[in-house]
Amino acid sequence: MSFGQGGPQWGSGEGQNQNPWNGRDAYGPGQGGDPYGRPGETPFGGSSDTPDWAALADASADRARKKRLLMIGGGGLATVAVAAVVATAIVLSNDADDAEGSHATASGSPSASAAQDAQPGPSFASVAPAPPPNPSDFISDEKKDKAPLNLDTFFPGTTMTMADRKYAKGATHSTGACASAAQGALAGALTANGCDQVFRATYSKDGVAVTVGVAVFGTQAEAQRAAGTKRNIAPLAGAGVPSFCKGGPVCLFRSSYAGRYAFYTSTGFTNGTSVTEKDAKVYQAAKDITDLTFQQVRARGQAQASAAAATGG
Fold it and tell me: Which range (73-82, 128-137, 228-237) has the least confidence?
């Protein structure tokens, strides 16, 4: 800056040792005592002193016969079940073989092979596509920066707005005689670095006026050198903005560059008051107008890069 700048409960033990048979003999008739009745009784109405051996033999033979019949019947059922399982497995195997055979026939047919051979395989470019153009390239060299240059290029419309701050546009001016738009050492620096044109516009808000000048050079290196020189763009009055930053008051002067464009601002009070470091709105105005003008230059580069990408240039 320069001036002039987040264990289950089992219950009680009641009933756990009670007789599950409700007081009866735990075995009951025929379950664990005499297999043929209670003690002292005769199962077939005979004397309890001599057993009926013939009846016992017949009963034993009858039980053996029933057991054989059950075993034969069970074996037959098992045989039938095994046969059913085997038959089912054979049918499923045949079905699978048929399906595989059909598939093999279809895929192995001459017409299917021809259709597959006729379908083209994926193709890949042998050379990777070129990266999209860089917008900075178009605003850094006059050989690529071919879009028209005029006052509307940098200062469109009648106002400039940054956030909620709106600045009214006053007088505008452009010239190829770059030194005439500058004061002090800046005039010589513009000429020495091959300045082509200077575009100026003044904006005002709440008693603060800003003249922004855009000096156009052939290359970025030239603009960078010129932006580093002591800067003082000539304030531009008119179109509702009185003369400012002339005749003695202290003003704020700043400079920067982008590509082949150098930016200069002269900012001060329209009532002739000198600027101090506490005058925040002066500093804000200078920054806003410079940033908004830079946005116009950046948009210029982006537009030319997009056009080049569309045409393959």
Answer: 73-82
pLDDT tens string 156-179:
999 999 999 999 999 999 999 999
Amino acid at 279: D
Take residue 177 and report the two structure tokens written for it.
């005689």
As a whole number of angstroms, the distance between CA 248 and CA 241 comes to 18
Contact between 251 and 266 under an 8 Å Cβ cutoff? The reply is yes
Residue listed under structure tokens 């709106």 = 166
- Count the neighbouring beta carbons within 10 Å of the beta carbon of residue 68: 10
The tokens describing 304, both together, are: 């030319």
Torsion of CA 179, 181, 182, 183, to 10 degrees: 110
Q: How far apart are CA 254 and CA 285, in angstroms?
A: 12
Nearest to 232 by CA among 205, 260, 196, 198: 198
Question: Between these two residues, 56 and 42, which has the higher pLDDT value?
Answer: 56
* DSSP letter, residue 228: T
pTM of the model: 0.60
* Bridge pairing between strands 208-216 and 261-269: antiparallel
Which tens digit of pLDDT belongs to each residue from 272-284? 999 999 999 999 9
> Each residue of 236-254: pLDDT tens digit?
999 999 999 998 899 999 9
Contacts of 8 (CB under 8 A, 6+ apart): none
Distance CA 101, CA 95 (A): 10
Ramachandran category for residue 176: left, alpha or beta (phi over 0 → left; psi -120 to 50 → alpha): alpha
Residue 102: both structure tokens together? 């059909």
- List all residues 6 or more positions away from 157 whose beta carbon is below 8 Å from its beta carbon: 169
Supply the DSSP string of 169-213, one letter for each residue. Answer: EEEEEEES-GGGGB-THHHHHHHHTT--EEEEEEEEETTEEEEEE
How many helices and strands (H and E) does the chain possess?
7, 7
